[in-house]
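Is this the right way to post structure tokens for a design question? Let me know if I should format differently. Anyway, here goes:
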């Protein structure tokens, strides 16, 4: 039997193309945002005491925030490529009024999903926003995207204040990225027999959720009502947590925004072979664990080029992950949590020719299968515009929604079709990641200017999200009822420029044809 990552090799190859095409702010937009007049800081200090010490955050009288809270020991020196360790208590009161460092990555100042410098391996921090008088409030924990290679929980795009004003406690977090977060090597395995290896970034997320369980009540949150939500790689991480036996008791609801769903995962042995090649690229022919941990952070970041990144990401380690999400959902082994999943209407406008080339090595993509697929679309232009996004995002999401609903669990699905007036006129639909400022109501951090109409849509979208965190069912005042997803009818909520509309999943015949191409 072929390994899972080989079964979906073309799928993963297309993810590489998608990652390179992700929209971000132009340099001019970034400069304009940086030049915006500073906002006067809140006048009040808010102090809380948690297990590791006291924290001094800020309050404006309506919400309070605490930032750069360490949830694990710095993963540096001998703790690099180790599971997250317990944070050491600090004396006195720790200032928690500014975000912490980014995790190591190739820094892109025009990416609005990345917070401000500096960068450091000492980056395992989280941020909390809460209503001032919160008591046992539902908690929403955000997992940022970025292909497991970039991004942060410190970006202004993910400021949790607006959501906190809607009665929830919001947590955003950093986790190790790239080779720091997803790396296996025989020397590391030999140095710590029996210890979990490889999925350090996901281990960090689990550690952050454990911190939430143990501490969030001090901020007015309810540890029994935790919703995990994430976008792109963050959404894929949510799916991974849905099927991880280790994370099962750390959350009660899940939201997946453009989170894939059919991606393959390497075994630890396969990831270790990639790790050996990576070390050899850096001049370590027969590396020891000490030599690997002695590499400079900059050398590791700079060596993470597109070839080395192949296969980078979560792996099947036999402990944190034993099956891919698609495999586990199909067997009914996922968490029985209320589940909200969706995609954007045109995630990546990749030419159909590139899609076909990526699948050329797949035995399922026969000439007849290709003909059947093209015939399933209403016309050649629709095929060209949508087939890539349908294969990577839409069909996998519909598949997971259908399986979760079939398994008897509350399931809701959506399509985000909003296209702002200021978006490039060449766009034919909502691109990847453009729903984020609507979810967080952080419109000023959008990749392009948003107007009053967008503000109304953001009110509605964020209301659906926070009500889901509160009740397990998405509702919004003066907005359409969101139908529960059913395996046969496949109803969804479509967020359009004129508001949300309940309807059916798009292009059902095309999705059926694409399903046949997945193993």
């Amino acid at each position: 039997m072929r390994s899972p990552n080989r079964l979906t090799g073309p799928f993963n190859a297309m993810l590489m193309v998608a990652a390179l095409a992700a929209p971000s702010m132009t340099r001019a937009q970034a400069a304009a945002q940086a030049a915006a007049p500073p906002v006067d800081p809140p006048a009040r200090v808010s102090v809380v005491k948690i297990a590791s010490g006291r924290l001094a955050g800020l309050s404006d009288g309506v919400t309070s925030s605490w930032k750069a809270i360490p949830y694990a020991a710095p993963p540096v020196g001998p703790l690099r490529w180790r599971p997250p360790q317990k944070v050491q208590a600090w004396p006195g009161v720790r200032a928690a009024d500014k975000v912490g460092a980014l995790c190591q990555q190739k820094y892109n100042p025009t990416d609005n999903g990345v917070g401000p410098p500096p960068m450091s391996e000492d980056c395992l921090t989280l941020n909390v926003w809460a209503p001032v008088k919160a008591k046992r409030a539902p908690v929403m924990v955000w997992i940022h995207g970025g292909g497991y290679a970039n991004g942060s929980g410190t970006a202004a795009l993910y400021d949790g204040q607006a959501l906190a004003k809607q009665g929830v406690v919001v947590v955003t977090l950093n986790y190790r990225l790239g080779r720091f977060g997803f790396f296996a090597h025989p020397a590391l395995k030999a140095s710590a027999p029996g210890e979990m290896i490889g999925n350090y970034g996901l281990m960090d997320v689990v550690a952050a959720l454990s911190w939430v369980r143990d501490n969030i009540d001090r901020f007015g949150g309810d540890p029994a009502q935790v919703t995990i939500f994430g976008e792109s790689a963050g959404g894929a991480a949510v799916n991974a947590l849905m099927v991880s036996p280790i994370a099962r008791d750390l959350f009660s609801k899940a939201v997946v925004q453009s989170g894939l769903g059919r991606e393959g995962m390497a075994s630890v042995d396969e990831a270790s072979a990639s790790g050996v090649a990576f070390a050899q690229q850096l001049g370590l022919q027969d590396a020891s664990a000490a030599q690997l941990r002695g590499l400079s952070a900059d050398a590791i970041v700079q060596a993470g080029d597109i070839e080395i990144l192949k296969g980078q990401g979560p792996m099947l380690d036999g402990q944190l992950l034993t099956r891919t999400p698609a495999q586990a959902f199909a067997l009914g082994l996922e968490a029985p949590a209320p589940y909200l999943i969706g995609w954007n209407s045109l995630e990546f406008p990749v030419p159909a020719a590139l899609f076909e080339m990526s699948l050329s090595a797949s035995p399922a993509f026969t000439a007849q299968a290709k003909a059947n697929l093209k015939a399933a679309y209403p016309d050649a232009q629709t095929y060209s515009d949508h087939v890539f996004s349908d294969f990577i995002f839409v069909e996998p999401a519909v598949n997971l929604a259908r399986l979760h609903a079939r398994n008897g669990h509350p399931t809701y699905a959506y399509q985000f079709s909003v296209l702002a007036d200021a978006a490039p006129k060449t766009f034919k639909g909502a691109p990847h990641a453009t729903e984020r400022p609507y979810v967080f109501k952080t419109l000023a951090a959008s990749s392009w200017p948003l107007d009053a109409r967008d503000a109304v849509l953001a009110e509605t979208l964020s209301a659906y999200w926070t009500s889901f965190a509160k009740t397990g069912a998405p509702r919004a005042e003066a907005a359409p009822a969101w139908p529960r997803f059913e395996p046969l009818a496949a109803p969804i909520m479509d967020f359009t420029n004129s508001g949300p509309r309940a309807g059916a999943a798009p292009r059902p015949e095309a999705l059926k044809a694409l399903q046949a191409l997945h193993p």
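Format looks fine. Someone answered above. Worth noting: The chain has one domain: 4-20+46-515. Residues 4-20+46-515 form a domain with the Rossmann fold fold (CATH 3.40.50.1820).
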